[in-house]
Design goal:
The complex is a heterodimer of chains A (about 100) and B (about 550).
Chain A: E1 2-8, E2 14-18, E3 21-23, H1 35-50, E4 54-65, E5 68-71, H2 74-81, H3 91-96
Antiparallel strand pairs in A: 1-2, 1-4, 2-3, 4-5
Chain B: H1 6-27, H2 33-42, E1 45-47, E2 52-56, E3 62-63, H3 65-78, E4 82-85, E5 91-93, H4 101-109, E6 127-128, H5 143-153, E7 168-171, E8 185-191, E9 197-203, E10 215-222, H6 226-240, H7 251-258, H8 260-274, H9 283-292, H10 304-314, H11 316-325, E11 326-328, E12 334-339, E13 350-352, H12 353-366, E14 371-373, E15 379-385, H13 389-398, E16 413-414, H14 429-438, H15 442-448, E17 453-456, E18 470-477, E19 480-487, E20 499-500, E21 505-506, H16 510-524, H17 532-539, H18 542-555
Classes of the chains: A alpha+beta (about 100), B alpha+beta (about 550).
The structure holds protoporphyrin IX containing FE (HEM) and iron/sulfur cluster.
Iron/sulfur cluster (SF4) binds near residues 460 and 462 of chain B.
């Protein structure tokens, strides 16, 4: 399964495509289960890049754990949570608050 | 300390205005990311995993209190309350919004700072010995020459689009604390038999995926010829350096592929054309720049000896710190102090906003308003009267920056790694923290003695792992982090590249492996004076391999 991720142009914050917009957390990201859905996400990403909403657009591997979307690779898990050495910063901190 | 002249002010202000305009046009969608990326990189703005990153130049690592206080202000106002001092004597902020960067650059310009040429294929911030101007063993302060190089290389039209980035380092002492042999050009300031100043010139050092030790191409270059000779080197590189392959584009590859004799011949030939022309430095110009770096008026403070003696008796913490973090100054009543940014279990090189402000206060009060950033990711107070050392120590204790571990195993260089960096293959900071905690006991660290441990989170080697006595490189293997260990590297006047000792270790195993290496060293050293690196050079890798892997080969 794949999801679409990028960084927001204005502040560089990591975002994921979910429900017609760019969410600041990964949990509800739109999942692509097949090639057609991947192409659709890719096209959305290309358009958002061209429209100067986001930069560094990527389709990444994801899985569903307890009903929540999670990236597969460590790099993407860290992007989704924040630095592992600073639990007080990034998405993980906002989630805890 | 160097002060901007009118030209510098106008230049930096013009750049702030220009880049602010470029940011506005990017935010409004007038220019695309492809158009903007090279512009932002020329101004130190990267995109990392979580956000943008801003790299700010600290020329030759020299700062004053006002500047450090401004960095603290930026950390608090625009970032998340901290910054990361780097091996290139710069500082990086990890969370700035693109839309705030014009304001940050304006704040920096107000204290004569900027982010120009901290990225891109140009001549980067010139680095220098962090004890420059204070060291008892230097022939002269190397920073005036670094400043001359800065002025010459800033937006140099011929050298702004080189095949790849270009890094220059200078030292003024035999004992190299600036790692000059790991740079594209390394300059060793020295005196010839007639007492004249000049440089031994090294080229082609570098780290990254193909580490190489620089080669000496000239034993003595008169100081007046600094710019003409560097121009000759850069011309040869600019002409013949490979642009077809990014991984072969550094001058080290050119030196390697061309051969040092031939490239020396080419440089010398080019130099013949240049040496007696307008790049020759007039003596008056060199002296004028030197005047900016004149040491502060250090009045005699002979009471220091007695004060230090008494304070030692009073406080074991102070005594340990004195032994480890305080070094000899050229003035006998003064000392140079290393402020460790390597508290046990802390993130190497990170400092909080309030720590930066407090250190700025200390520098103003006790250190003639001078500070340095070291390439080992610490801060330095270059001129402190011995009589004031206890007061400085107490002030550092108050802000948690009095760890007495300079040059010991917990004084680790670590790059940001996968916790921040978009290029990383593994985390480096948590490994540094775990090793630091394992060796937390200062007594044990001092028993081990000088040991330089350096960690990078990918093959780009920003954490200098190739030249660590113990180097750790984090890679990704089958989706997990794996740590390769190299031994025997060093970045001083006897620079060497470490050798990979064997198979890598998982994140659960790596700290044990490091401990095993250290125990092996303790077991085989001839006496406590034989340092890790000397022992390794004497015995080679075999005993360490045996200790780490013997069990496995028998089992296999
Ligand atoms: C966080 C963003 C960073 C990025 C994207 C980055 C990128 C790179 C790359 C691509 C190289 C290899 C260059 C080559 O081999 O041609 C490199 C080398 C290097 N970087 Fe970084 N780096 C980053 C952070 C840092 C930091 C935080 C430091 C200091 C702690 C640093 C210091 C160095 C040094 C000393 C080298 C080796 C110089 C050489 O190759 O000769 N970098 N970096
Ligand atoms: S060594 Fe690799 S992981 Fe570390 S900062 Fe450099 S590019 Fe990033």
């Amino acid at each position: 399964m794949k999801i679409l991720t990028a960084n927001r142009l204005t502040d560089g914050i990591a975002v994921w495509y979910a429900d017609g917009g760019w969410a600041e957390t990964v949990g509800q990201a739109d999942l692509a289960h097949d090639k057609a859905a991947e192409d659709r996400l890719e096209a959305i990403g290309a358009k958002a890049y061209a429209d100067n909403e986001v930069v560094d657009v990527n389709l990444i591997d994801a899985e569903v754990v307890d009903g929540v979307v999670e990236p597969v690779r460590l790099r993407e898990k860290i992007r989704a949570a924040g630095p592992t050495i600073r639990g007080d910063l990034g998405k993980q901190a906002e989630r805890a608050a | 300390m160097y002060r901007y002249d009118e030209f510098d002010h106008d230049f930096v202000q013009a750049r702030v205005a220009e880049f602010s305009d470029q940011v506005q046009r990017r935010l409004s969608g007038e220019i695309s990311e492809d158009q903007f990326r090279p512009l932002r990189l020329m101004n130190g703005v990267y995109l990392q995993l979580h956000a943008y990153m801003l790299r700010i130049a600290v020329p030759y690592g020299t700062l004053n209190g006002k500047q450090l206080r401004m960095l603290g202000h930026i950390a608090r106002k625009y970032d998340k309350g901290y910054g990361h001092f780097t091996t290139r004597q710069n500082i990086q902020f990890n969370w700035p919004a693109l839309s705030d960067i014009p304001a940050i650059l304006a704040d920096l310009a107000s204290v004569e700072m900027h982010a120009i040429q901290t990225s891109g294929n140009c001549i980067r911030n010139v680095t220098a010995d962090h004890f420059a101007g204070a060291a008892a063993d230097e022939v002269a302060d190397p920073r005036p020459y670094a400043e001359i190089l800065r002025q010459w290389s800033s937006v140099h039209p011929e050298f702004s689009f080189l095949p790849r980035k270009f890094k220059i380092a200078v030292t003024g002492a035999e004992r190299d604390r600036a790692a000059i042999q790991t740079h594209d050009i390394g300059l060793h300031l020295k005196k010839n038999a007639d007492g004249e100043l000049g440089f031994a010139v090294y080229i082609g050092g570098g780290q990254g995926r193909t580490p190489m030790v620089a080669r000496k191409i000239r034993d003595f270059l008169p100081e007046a010829d600094l710019l003409s000779y560097c121009t000759a080197i850069l011309r040869v590189y600019n002409l013949y350096g490979r642009r077809d392959n990014k991984y072969k584009a550094r001058i080290k590859i050119l030196v390697h592929e061309t051969g040092v004799e031939e490239i020396t011949r080419q440089v010398e030939a080019e130099w013949q054309e240049l040496k007696d022309a307008e790049l020759k430095l007039p003596d008056a110009d060199i002296r004028a720049i030197q005047a900016y770096f004149a040491p502060p008026a250090l009045t005699d403070r002979p009471e220091g000896d007695q004060a230090v003696k008494l304070a030692r008796l009073d406080s074991k913490g102070f005594s340990d710190w004195l032994d480890q973090n305080v070094v000899t100054h050229h003035h006998p009543d003064y000392a140079a102090v290393t402020i460790s940014l390597k508290g046990i279990g802390e993130v190497p090189g990170d400092a909080s906003d309030s720590q930066m402000e407090a250190v700025a206060d200390i520098a103003e009060k006790y250190a003639f308003d001078e500070l340095r950033v070291s390439h080992e990711q610490n801060l330095i107070l270059p001129h402190v009267a011995r009589a004031d050392l206890k007061a400085v120590y107490d002030a550092l204790v108050d802000i948690g920056l009095a760890t007495a571990n300079s040059n010991l195993i917990s004084d680790i260089i670590s790059c940001p790694g996968l916790d921040y960096c978009a290029l990383a293959t593994a985390r480096s900071i948590p490994i540094a923290q775990e090793i630091s905690q394992r060796f937390a006991s200062l007594e044990r660290q001092r028993e081990i003695g000088e040991l330089k441990l350096k960690i990078s989170g990918c093959i780009n080697a920003c954490g200098h792992h190739h030249v660590g006595h113990i180097g750790i490189l984090g890679v990704e293997k089958k989706g997990s982090e794996l740590y390769q260990v190299t031994l025997g590297g060093s970045a001083d006047e006897n620079t060497s590249v470490g050798e990979i000792i064997g198979r890598g270790f998982s994140s659960d195993e790596i700290t044990d492996a490091i401990e095993q290496i250290v125990e092996t060293y303790l077991g085989l050293r001839l006496n406590p004076q034989e340092k890790f690196i000397d022992a390794y050079r004497r015995v080679g890798p075999a005993p360490f391999k045996e200790a780490l892997y013997a069990g496995e080969t028998k089992a296999a």
